[in-house]
Design brief:
It is a single chain. With 624 residues, the protein is mostly beta strands. Among the domains are: 2-98, no CATH class; 430-623, Sandwich (Jelly Rolls). The protein is 5% helix and 42% strand. The strands form five sheets. It has a 27-stranded parallel β-sheet that branches. The protein is rod-shaped, with a radius of gyration of 40 Å.
Length: 624
C-alpha cells in the first residue's frame, strides 16, 4: 500500500534489506579478532594444573591463569604453540600452550609452594629457560625457597639468576646445592653474560659434606663460566668449588662464610683453572679461606679474608692484591696461616695482614706465618702492612721454599719477625751466621787494644810486654742452634777499657733489615752487682780497606740500640735472643729505618761496659 511517501514492506523484504541477523556475542568476537593478538584481553582460566580439563575458545590467543597449583601463586599468561613438549600444557580442546615470551620465569610459575620442597619447581624453571627459550633469567623476586637436597643443575652460561634478596635453603646431604654445568647446545662465546646476582644460598652446615656452588662441566671445549654479583653463601663444606672445565669465573661482592672451606679448587681436574677472579669479596668465619690444590690461577682484588682458622693452603699461582687479612691468634704450632704445599707462587701485594692483638703479650704460638713444602715454592710480600706476625720460631717462613719481601710497613719488632727464614739464602750473613764451620765465615772484627794481632785479635802492651788480649774464635763449648758459637774472650783488662766486636753485611739502599742474634755469658764474672753489654745497629758506608786489612768506615747513622745488665755473680744458663727490624728505630735516630742512598752496609756493634777481666761472651744464630 502506498500512502503518500510511505510504502508497505513485508518481513521477507525487510530481512533481505538488512542481511542476516548476527548474535551480539558473535559481533563481539569478530571485534576482538580484529584487534592484534598482543592487544587482546587474555582468556582467564583457573589453575594451570586444571588446564587439561578446560575448553579454551578457538579464537583465544592468550591465557591468564589464577595460579599454578594454588590460587594466587604463579599467576602467568600463556600463548599457543604448535606442538607439545615437556614444558608445554595441553587444554581440553587439544591445543598446546607455553609460558608467554614476555613473562618472567619464576619458581612459582613452575609449581613452587611455600610449604613444600622447592627443588623440583626450581629445576623445571631452569630447564624451561634452557630448553624452551635457549637463554634467560630465573627471577627469585625476593622469595624464600626450601630445598630438601641438591643439586639444582644450571647452565650458568645461558641462565642467569636474579634474586632481589631471595634465598635458597638446602637440607640433606647431596653433593652440592647448585651444580653449574654448561650444556653442549649452549653457545660458548660471543654473547653477553646473564649474571647471578642478589641472592643467598644457605646450607645444612660445614660438616654436612654438601658443597655450595660446584662448577663442573663434563663436555670437552665447554666451561662453567659465570659472573656472580652480590651472593651470600654459607653453611657448606666448600662454599665455592671449581672442578672440571671451570675457568674464567668472575665473582664480585660475594660473601662466603660458616663453611669448612670458603673457596676450593681440587686436584685432578681437567681443562680448568684459568683466570678465576674475586673482586671485593668477603671470606670469613670458616676453617680455611682458600684451598688451591689444583694449582689454579686465582686472583683476589680488594677482598677481605677474616677470622678463618687458616687463610691459604695449596699451590699454583694465587695473587692477593690490596686485600685485608685478619685472624685470631693461632692456637697451635701447626696452625700456620699460609701454606704452599708444592711448587707455586703466593703473592700478597699491598693491603693489610694482621693477627688479633688479644693476648698480644703472649706472642704467637704458630711456628711460622708461611710454610713452603717445595724448593720451587715462593712467597712474595710487597708493600704489605703487618700487625702481630710474631711466631714461636721468630721467623716468617719455614720449609724448603723462599720468601721475598719488599716495602713491608707496620714492621716494628713487636709486629713482624726480624728473620724471614733461617737459611743461607735469606740470611745476609749467609751460612756463616750459624758458626758451624771451624773458621769464622762472617765479616767481623775486633776494635781496641794497643796492637793489632790480626782481624780477630788485639793485645794491650806496656813497654813491649803484652799484659792483656781480646780475641774472637769458633767455640763448640756453648752452641746455639748450630754446632758452634762465636766466642769473644777478653782477659787482663776490664773496667772502662774500650773494646768492641763489629759485624757487617752489605745492604741495598732503601731496604729495611731484620736483625737477630743470640748471646750468652756462661761464666761467672766474680763479684757483686751488674755490668752492661751494649749493642748498636747502624747503617754505614765502607769507603775502602786500611793498611791492616780492616774496612775503612765513612759516615754512619744510628738505627737503634739495646743494653743488657749482666749479673757478675753467676753465668747465664742459656742464650738470650735479641731481634728487631731496622724500622723499629731509636727515637733519637735520624733514620726512618731504611738504608740511606749512601749506605753500603748494616753494622752491628757489641761493646762490654764496666766488665771485669776474664769475660767470655758467646754469639750464635746471627741473621739479617
Amino acid at each position: 500500500m502506498i500512502d503518500g511517501d510511505r510504502v508497505a514492506i513485508g518481513r521477507r523484504r525487510l530481512a533481505g534489506a538488512f542481511g542476516t541477523i548476527v548474535p551480539a556475542a558473535a559481533i563481539a568476537a569478530q571485534a576482538q579478532a580484529a584487534v592484534p593478538a598482543e592487544g587482546r584481553t587474555p582468556f582467564v582460566v583457573d589453575l594451570l594444573q586444571d588446564l587439561s580439563t578446560t575448553e579454551v575458545p578457538s579464537d583465544a590467543v592468550r591465557l591468564r591463569t589464577t595460579g599454578h597449583t594454588r590460587p594466587g601463586l604463579g599467576i602467568a599468561e600463556y600463548t599457543p604453540t604448535n606442538a607439545g613438549g615437556p614444558h608445554r600444557v595441553r587444554s581440553a580442546d587439544g591445543r598446546w600452550w607455553v609460558l608467554a615470551a614476555d613473562q618472567h620465569v619464576t619458581p612459582e610459575r613452575f609449581g613452587a609452594l611455600p610449604d613444600a620442597n622447592a627443588l623440583p619447581a626450581l629445576q623445571r624453571a631452569v630447564d624451561f629457560i634452557q630448553q624452551e627459550r635457549g637463554r634467560g633469567v630465573l627471577e627469585l623476586m625476593g622469595g624464600r625457597y626450601a630445598c630438601s637436597s641438591g643439586p639444582l643443575v644450571v647452565d650458568p652460561v645461558s641462565t642467569g639468576i636474579r634474586g632481589s634478596s631471595g634465598q635458597l635453603t638446602f637440607k640433606g646431604s647431596g653433593p652440592a646445592a647448585i651444580l653449574c654445568r654448561q650444556r653442549p647446545a649452549t653457545q660458548q662465546y660471543g654473547h653477553s653474560a646473564f649474571p647471578w646476582e642478589g641472592f643467598e644460598v644457605a646450607g645444612p652446615g660445614p660438616d654436612s659434606g654438601m658443597d655450595g656452588i660446584l662448577f663442573d662441566t663434563a663436555t670437552s671445549a665447554l666451561s662453567s663460566r659465570i659472573l656472580a654479583i652480590g651472593l651470600a653463601i654459607h653453611g657448606f663444606r666448600s662454599g665455592l668449588k671449581m672442578a672440571n672445565r671451570a675457568y674464567m669465573l668472575k665473582f664480585v661482592g660475594v660473601e662466603v662464610y660458616d663453611c669448612a672451606i670458603c673457596v676450593e679448587f681440587p686436584n685432578h681436574t681437567e681443562d680448568s683453572g684459568e683466570n678465576i677472579s674475586f673482586v671485593s669479596c668477603s671470606l670469613f668465619n670458616s676453617r680455611l679461606a682458600v684451598l688451591n690444590n689444583g694449582g689454579a690461577e686465582l686472583f683476589f682484588l680488594a677482598c677481605s679474608l677474616d677470622y678463618c682458622t687458616r687463610l691459604f693452603v695449596g699451590l699454583g699461582l694465587t695473587n692477593f692484591t690490596g686485600c685485608h687479612f685478619e685472624i685470631a691468634q693461632p692456637a697451635a704450632a701447626d696452625q700456620i696461616p699460609f701454606e704452599l704445599t708444592d711448587a707455586g707462587d703466593l703473592i700478597i701485594d699491598g693491603g693489610t695482614l694482621m693477627i688479633s692483638g688479644r693476648d698480644f703479650e703472649h706472642g704467637g704460638v704458630q711456628s711460622y706465618m708461611f710454610q713452603t713444602r717445595n724448593r720451587a715454592s715462593r712467597v712474595w710480600l710487597r708493600n704489605v702492612n703487618g700487625y702481630n706476625w710474631r711466631t714461636a720460631t721468630g721467623a716468617l717462613l719455614g720449609g724448603a721454599g723462599r720468601i721475598m719481601c719488599e716495602g713491608l710497613t707496620g714492621g716494628t719488632n713487636r709486629q713482624i719477625p726480624a728473620v724471614t727464614k733461617r737459611d743461607a739464602v735469606h740470611n745476609l750473613f749467609g751460612s756463616g751466621g750459624m758458626f758451624r764451620g771451624p773458621t769464622i765465615a762472617v765479616d767481623c772484627w775486633i776494635e781496641g787494644g794497643t796492637r793489632r794481632l790480626n782481624r780477630y785479635a788485639v793485645a794491650w802492651e806496656n813497654s813491649g810486654q803484652e799484659y792483656a788480649r781480646a780475641e774472637l774464635a769458633i767455640s763448640d763449648r756453648f752452641a746455639g742452634q748450630g754446632a758452634s758459637s762465636l766466642r769473644f774472650a777478653r782477659r787482663g783488662v776490664g773496667g772502662g777499657t774500650p773494646s768492641a766486636v763489629y759485624f757487617a753485611t752489605p745492604v741495598r739502599a732503601g731496604a729495611s733489615v731484620g736483625l737477630e742474634f743470640s748471646w750468652r755469658m756462661p761464666l761467672s764474672l766474680g763479684g757483686t752487682g751488674t755490668a752492661m753489654l751494649y749493642f748498636q745497629a747502624l747503617f754505614t758506608r765502607m769507603i775502602g780497606v786500611g793498611d791492616t786489612g780492616l774496612p775503612l768506615l765513612g759516615e754512619n747513622v744510628l738505627i737503634g740500640e739495646a743494653n743488657r745488665d749482666v749479673a757478675l755473680s753467676a753465668g747465664m744458663a742459656s742464650f738470650e735472643k735479641i731481634s728487631f727490624g731496622t724500622t723499629y728505630t731509636d727515637h733519637s735516630s735520624p733514620t726512618d729505618g731504611y738504608a740511606p742512598g749512601w749506605a753500603t752496609h748494616l753494622l752491628l756493634v757489641m761493646s762490654p761496659i764496666n766488665m771485669p777481666p776474664g769475660i767470655e761472651i758467646h754469639i750464635a744464630n746471627l741473621a739479617a
